C-alpha cells in the first residue's frame, strides 16, 4: 500500500499531491476491516486452518492488478527533455531529501516503537484485559489514517513544514502523556495522538520528497527513502518489547524524546531557511 503513494503523486498535478497521498492512506481504514474479516471467512475452507484466508487475500490482488493496468502518470512537459542523472550522494545531500526522509523516518520509528511496546506494557505489565488493549490499538490505527480526510486542508493553511512541526509537537505530547500516567484513558489518548502525529509527518515527508529529484531519478531516490523509513521502523518494532520489558515503560517513553527534539530543531531550521518549501 505504501508504494502506491508514489503512484498516486505521479498521477496528479503538484498541488494535488497531498490529497492523493491522503486518499491512499485512507484505504488503510478499509484494509484494517477487510484483513481480519477475510482471515476469519477463509479460516476453515480447507483441512489446514487459514489456507483459505491466504487464497482470499491472493484474490484481492486481482482487482488491484486490473486497476494498475490503467495507471498513467501525469505528463510533465518540463521533464520530457532527458536530464542527466546526478550521483545518488548528490541528491540525498539536498535539504529537501534530508527533511523529507528524516520526518517520515522519525514519525515511523516513534510510532512503531511506542505502538509495539504498548500491548506489552498494558496487558503483560499493567494487567489490562485483552479487550482494553485491543480497543486502544484499534483506536490508534483509526487515528493514523482517518485524519487524512483533513490533511490537504491543513497543508493549505499551514504549509508542509508547519504541519510536520505540528506532528512532532503532537508526538512529544503523546509520549509525555504516556510517561505521566498509565491509566486506560492515558494509554488511549497517548496512542490517539501517536497516530495523528505519525500522519502529519509521514504525509508531509512523502509530499516533500519529489522536490528532491528529477523524473528520471525517482526510482532510486524513492528506494533509498523507503529503505531508511522501513529499515529503522523494523528495528524499532523488533526492539520495543525487549526495551519496555527490561527498562520500564517510563524509560521507553523518555528514550524517544531526543529523536523528536532533534527532528523539531531540524524542521525549525528548514522553515527558517526555506520559506518557498514551507
Short structural description:
The chain has 278 residues and is mainly alpha-helical.
Keywords:
mainly alpha; globular
What is the secondary structure topology, with strand pairs?
Elements: H1 4-10, H2 17-41, H3 51-68, H4 88-92, H5 95-125, H6 130-145, H7 148-158, H8 160-180, H9 184-208, H10 218-247, H11 249-255, H12 257-273
Description:
With 278 residues, this protein is mainly alpha-helical. Helix content is 77%, strand content 0%. It contains twelve helices and no strands. α5 packs parallel to α8, α6 runs parallel beside α9 and α8 runs antiparallel to α9.
Q: Which class do the helix and strand fractions yield?
A: mainly alpha
Low-confidence stretches: 77-81
Largest sheet: none
**Mean residue pLDDT:** 86
Helices, by number, come to: 12
The percent of residues in helical segments reads: over 70%
Q: Determine the N-to-C terminus distance.
A: 27 Å
Total strand segments: 0
Order of secondary-structure elements: HHHHHHHHHHHH
Radius of gyration: 20 Å
Amino acid at each position: 500500500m505504501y508504494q502506491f503513494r508514489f503512484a498516486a503523486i505521479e498521477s496528479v498535478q503538484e498541488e494535488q499531491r497531498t490529497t492523493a497521498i491522503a486518499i491512499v492512506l485512507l484505504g488503510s481504514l478499509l484494509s484494517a476491516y477487510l484483513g481480519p474479516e477475510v482471515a476469519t471467512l477463509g479460516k476453515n475452507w480447507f483441512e489446514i486452518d487459514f489456507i483459505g484466508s491466504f487464497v482470499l487475500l491472493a484474490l484481492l490482488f486481482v482487482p488491484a492488478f486490473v486497476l494498475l493496468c490503467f495507471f498513467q502518470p501525469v505528463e510533465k512537459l518540463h521533464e520530457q527533455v532527458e536530464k542527466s542523472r546526478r550521483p545518488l550522494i548528490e541528491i540525498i545531500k539536498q535539504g529537501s531529501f534530508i527533511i523529507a526522509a528524516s520526518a517520515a523516518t522519525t514519525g515511523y520509528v516513534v510510532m512503531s516503537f511506542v505502538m509495539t511496546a504498548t500491548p506489552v506494557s498494558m496487558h503483560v505489565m499493567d494487567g489490562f484485559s485483552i479487550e482494553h488493549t485491543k480497543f486502544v490499538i484499534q483506536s490508534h490505527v483509526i487515528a493514523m489514517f482517518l485524519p487524512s480526510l483533513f490533511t490537504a486542508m491543513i497543508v493549505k493553511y499551514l504549509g508542509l513544514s508547519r504541519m510536520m512541526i505540528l506532528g512532532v509537537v503532537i508526538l512529544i505530547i503523546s509520549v509525555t502523556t504516556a510517561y505521566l500516567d498509565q491509566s486506560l484513558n492515558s494509554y488511549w489518548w497517548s496512542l490517539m495522538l501517536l497516530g495523528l502525529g505519525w500522519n502529519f509527518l509521514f504525509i508531509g515527508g512523502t509530499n516533500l520528497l519529489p522536490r528532491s529529484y528529477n523524473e528520471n531519478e525517482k526510482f532510486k531516490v524513492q528506494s533509498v527513502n523507503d529503505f531508511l523509513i522501513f529499515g529503522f521502523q523494523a528495528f524499532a518494532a523488533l526492539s520495543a518489547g525487549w526495551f519496555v520489558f527490561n527498562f520500564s515503560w517510563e524509560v521507553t517513553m523518555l528514550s524517544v524524546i531526543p529523536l523528536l527534539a532533534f527532528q523539531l530543531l531540524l524542521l525549525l531550521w528548514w522553515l527558517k531557511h526555506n520559506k518557498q518549501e514551507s
